[in-house]
Amino acid sequence: MDNFKVRGDIIIAVIGLVFLIYIGRLFSIQVLSEEYALRGTSNLVTTKPTIPPRGNIYNRKNEIFVDNRPIFKMMITPRNLYIPDTTVLKELLDMSQEEIDETIQKAQKYSTWKESVFARYIKPETYGALQEKMWNFGGFTFYPSTTRSYRYEVGANILGYISEVNEREIDASGGLYKSGDMIGKSGIERSHDKDLRGKQGKKKVLKDVHGREVGSYLNGKYDTVSVKGKDIMLGLDTDLQRFGEQLMWNKKGSIVAIEPSSGEILAFVSAPTYNPATLTGRELQKNWRTLQLDTLNPLFNRPLMAEYPPGSIFKLPVALAALNEGIITEETIYGCGGGFKRNGGKPGCRFHVTPLKLDNAIKYSCNSYFAATYMDFLHSSKFRDIYEAYDTWYRYMNLMGIGRQLNVDMPYEKDGNLPSSDLYDNERIYYGKNRWKATHIISNSIGQGEILMTPLQMANMVAMIANKGKYLPPHFVKATKSPNKPHWDHVSFDTIFTRINPIHFQTVVDAMEQVVASGTARRAYMSDFDVCGKTGTVQNPHGEDHAVFVGFAPKDNPQIAIAVIIENAGGGGRWAAPTASLMIEKYLRGEIKEKKFEENRIMSTNFIR
Description:
The chain has helices at residues 2-32, 34-40, 87-93, 97-110, 124-133, 156-159, 167-172, 187-191, 193-196, 238-247, 284-293, 302-305, 315-325, 358-364, 367-378, 386-399, 421-425, 455-466, 502-518, 576-589, 596-603, and strands spanning 44-50, 57-58, 64-76, 116-122, 140-150, 162-164, 182-184, 201-207, 213-216, 231-234, 253-258, 265-271, 470-471, 477-481, 489-490, 496-497, 532-538, 546-553, 560-566. By secondary structure, it is an alpha+beta fold. Among the domains are: 2-32; 238-603, DD-peptidase/beta-lactamase superfamily (Beta-lactamase, 3-Layer(aba) Sandwich), CATH 3.40.710.10. Strands 2, 3, 4, 5, 10, 14 and 15 form a seven-stranded mixed beta sheet that branches. Helix 3 runs antiparallel to helix 5 and helix 14 (358-364) packs across helix 19. The longest helix is centred in the N-terminal third of the chain and has 31 residues, at 2-32. The protein is elongated and about 120 Å long.
């Protein structure tokens, strides 16, 4: 009996001890623990993202180009929504009753318990007024954010814009983005979004039964700090960019300027253009649709995406390839007489000095000379057949950056077009195997035919010539800087070589100097700087020809290489060449002194009909 009694007492004691432990733990949790004390007075602990400021964008002079201004985003949770009076929302947010109802219905359709955007781009002063008047509203949450602010209202096609992610971008992000997040949609904002956007933080907050925030959870014990995006420095000269956009007012076309020694893009004008601030704020979507419907297509990034026959500027790479292969020398002479006689006078040519050597052929832009050069290249006895000859010529063009992307740090770059021998072998489109020769494709020799180049490729080609056969890939971003770091980390690139003997470039450069001094580009001449260039007139089946010019200066220490194309302007010497010289003078001198007449003439001319 006693043993059973003792055992019973032990069991009772153990049960009592366990009971006391549970009671103590419950007391600790429910009375002493701050965490559960807070939960006891609130319905919900939620996690809010803290959005970091987007990285700033600087110009080449280390001046802020793009920074941020604070805004707020207003979110709603439909199941907690309580709106005693919509007058406050209508007045302060400039929303109609129909817009309010439609936004709420859309949110309810998405989810009754998940947050949806109610209003975007709320200014700080409006946010303050809302806080004062919405104290008894339920289901609303505000998130601080930023939007872009522009110190220089230029370069819209370069910078791009930011906007909220769409469903496709959310699905493709693998959980990186969620509804309401901002992302770069085009330009530098898109290509460098990963660096610019920074890293989101998290903040746990307590909400009451009406969905209103009542405080921080555990005094921020589990919060994480957001990290500001990296700053980036562009090689862009904003003064030169602004000047280029002014010159191209009332015109369609492009100006691309590159620093030959670095590959940094100094100016990247797409005309017509627009103010980058147009695509910020509440009117972003409306303004974007307006720009998209504009028949002049200002959203089309012409320097990167427009593909033109290069015209006579293409004679420069044709000459370089032929010189390097020994097809011609600088002393080689061909006749002209108004057209290429070996092909029935096609292509035609204007009357000038004849016969002529290479330097004068470049100076007077002789079509016959380069048609002869091209034919002699493709039918040279040094090659087994026309296929070996054409593929050799093709490789030279490709090495000079023609017919392929240059991998510039911006999205949507086009290839241009450099036709392969396989294309000409396609009998459904062209001629068929072994059924074509130089006369079939003679237009390639003068930059017509199937050849297409982007303005960026044109500028890169002339930068390569300025560098005597090498170039660094053209690029916008020259340096980046992480938050709280004093120094810029400069971007580096590998030099690309064309495998053409530098001596041949000197021959072409000397001739390009004469083009400007006394040839087809005399309007680009400058007394203080030796400008080297080449004009082009691009045939346009839809109207007036396009004016083209490529060049660089100074001759012996090139600091700027440039390509200009003005649509429907006619000859390159009359419009594109002086436009380029104005850009050169602006960059090298800082102001226009010598070319005031040309500045006024070009700025006052309208080629948009």
